[in-house]
């Protein structure tokens, strides 16, 4: 359960990536950085990850329909006392972006932290649904992310998708040494951007 925050202004339901659970160092750092902006982060594990933790053996992710259903349940079971946003790391962000949110108007926007545009080195793009999005999708992407680099996306755009590029960062927001940045700083920058978007949406709603 997320810790209560003084003067909390929003709740972000955050899903993990394919290979690490909701308490991974990345997820923990991101949740802490968002909490500094008074955003309550609600993390959860998909069913396959729950089995990995329980059995101690690796398993592939569940089918997309199962992941979507489980994410939808998290939204339905969430306390609606705060404005709700959803998102996730890599695969978790993709799942969030693929949810049918027409029946969940309480969800204000989606955040993807390192979107897996395509498998590294392959041209199988995972953007078919972008043209049908009913909620805004905000992607925070490392400039050198092998799942979708800045150079690959320069000429691409979708009506409800915006991309914030993170300087010299990879898929896990780890920057190059020459950049002078460290991973925790990139994660904090991503959280600050997320906070700015949430503030704009909340202000527009008043």
TrEMBL record:
Organism encoding this protein: Arsukibacterium indicum
Domain KANL3/Tex30 alpha/beta hydrolase-like: 9-197
Source organism superkingdom: Bacteria
Gene Ontology molecular-function annotations: hydrolase activity
Protein's UniProt name: Alpha/beta hydrolase
UniProt KW keywords: Hydrolase
InterPro entries, alphabetized: KANL3/Tex30_Abhydrolase, NSL3/Tex30
One Pfam assignment: Abhydrolase_11
